[in-house]
């Protein structure tokens, strides 16, 4: 049976330029090609959860503009179980400027959040039944923090499991971290949360230990090409990176988080869900774009089965 995932998060219009390298300050550099399409961490992760097999209710907010019209048309044809899309009259739809460069397809992103940061307390209250009915609530930090906090409080009151992907960075309190069931920072966000420079598994373990002391019960720190660290107070596991030929890494983190939520909602345990999410993300980076690059459940399962050597590896718990 498919699990129910509620995703509260941003919608942005993405404008992507593919470069041979990143431009230097003050330099104009010709792009190899460019594209425009749907994005935003919330919409991307909702799409990934859907493609990974979940029933998804997406909650977001856009402006009363052409980009907002584009958002509605795109989301309505995506295949979500339900969509709650509020409209802001004062600010435009969020947008992002993305550079993708080099053989590893690394990216640099500038985001203007726009309407994403105007979600009101009344709008959150209207979503309370939806959140309570879900198995998983997946949130990020691309909306106003007051709305995120209220949404998490509603989830806890309804017994819904909460995943927080703390991206892009906003300062959050230890009180909020303690309300989250699973925290999923990348190495940069883990450093911003803890003050520990995360460059490898050993430093990731130190950062995870700090996060546990702050109240985070379960943590997955994604480490790019190195894979990910899964840490609870009882165990630490190395989640491997699946072999891939990177074309665009823009949506990798969103693919991982959406697939992780989908598999947890379906009943997988955390190591199984994280391993599937790693396979899912490895397919995403082989395609251009973010929302439009998400693979299917069947494709991810095939990659998972094609690499039996990729399994979670126990690590000594760092305390």
From TrEMBL:
Signal peptide: none annotated. Its main location: cytoplasm. Residues 4-295 form the Carbohydrate kinase PfkB domain. Pathway: Carbohydrate metabolism; D-ribose degradation; D-ribose 5-phosphate from beta-D-ribopyranose: step 2/2. It is found in: Cytoplasm. The active site is at 254 (proton acceptor). It is an enzyme of class 2 (transferase). Pfam families: PfkB (PF00294). Gene3D superfamilies: 3.40.1190.20. Its EC number is 2.7.1.15. Activated by a monovalent cation that binds near, but not in, the active site. The most likely occupant of the site in vivo is potassium. Ion binding induces a conformational change that may alter substrate affinity. Catalyzes the phosphorylation of ribose at O-5 in a reaction requiring ATP and magnesium. The resulting D-ribose-5-phosphate can then be used either for sythesis of nucleotides, histidine, and tryptophan, or as a component of the pentose phosphate pathway. Homodimer. Belongs to the carbohydrate kinase PfkB family. Ribokinase subfamily. Belongs to the carbohydrate kinase pfkB family. PANTHER family: RIBOKINASE, SUGAR KINASE. This is Ribokinase.
């Amino acid at each position: 049976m498919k699990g129910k995932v509620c995703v509260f998060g941003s919608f942005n219009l993405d404008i992507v330029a593919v470069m041979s390298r990143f431009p230097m300050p003050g330099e104009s550099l010709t792009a190899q090609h460019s594209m425009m399409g749907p994005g935003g961490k919330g919409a991307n992760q909702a799409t990934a959860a859907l493609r990974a097999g979940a029933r998804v209710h997406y909650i977001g907010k856009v402006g009363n503009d052409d980009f907002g019209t584009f958002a509605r048309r795109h989301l309505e044809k995506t295949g979500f179980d339900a969509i709650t899309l509020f409209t802001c009259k004062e600010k435009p739809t969020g947008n992002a400027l993305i550079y993708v460069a080099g053989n590893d397809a690394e990216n640099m992103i500038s985001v203007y959040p726009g309407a994403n940061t105007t979600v009101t307390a009344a709008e959150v209250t209207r979503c309370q039944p939806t959140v309570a009915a879900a198995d998983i609530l997946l949130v990020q930090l691309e909306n106003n923090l007051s709305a995120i906090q209220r949404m998490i409080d509603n989830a806890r009151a309804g017994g819904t499991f909460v995943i927080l992907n703390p991206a892009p960075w906003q300062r959050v309190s230890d009180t909020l971290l303690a309300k989250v069931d699973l925290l999923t920072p990348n190495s940069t966000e883990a450093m911003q949360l803890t003050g520990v420079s995360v460059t490898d598994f050993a430093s990731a373990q130190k950062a995870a230990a700090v996060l546990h002391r702050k109240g985070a019960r379960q943590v997955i720190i994604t480490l790019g090409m190195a894979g990910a660290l899964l840490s609870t107070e009882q165990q630490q596991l190395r989640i491997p990176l699946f072999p891939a030929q990177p074309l665009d890494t823009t949506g990798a983190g969103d693919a991982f988080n959406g697939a992780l939520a989908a598999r947890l909602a379906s009943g997988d345990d955390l190591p199984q869900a994280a391993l599937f999410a790693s396979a899912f993300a490895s397919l995403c980076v082989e395609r251009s774009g973010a929302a439009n690059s998400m693979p299917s459940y069947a494709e991810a399962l095939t990659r998972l089965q094609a690499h039996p050597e990729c399994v979670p590896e126990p690590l000594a718990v760092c305390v």
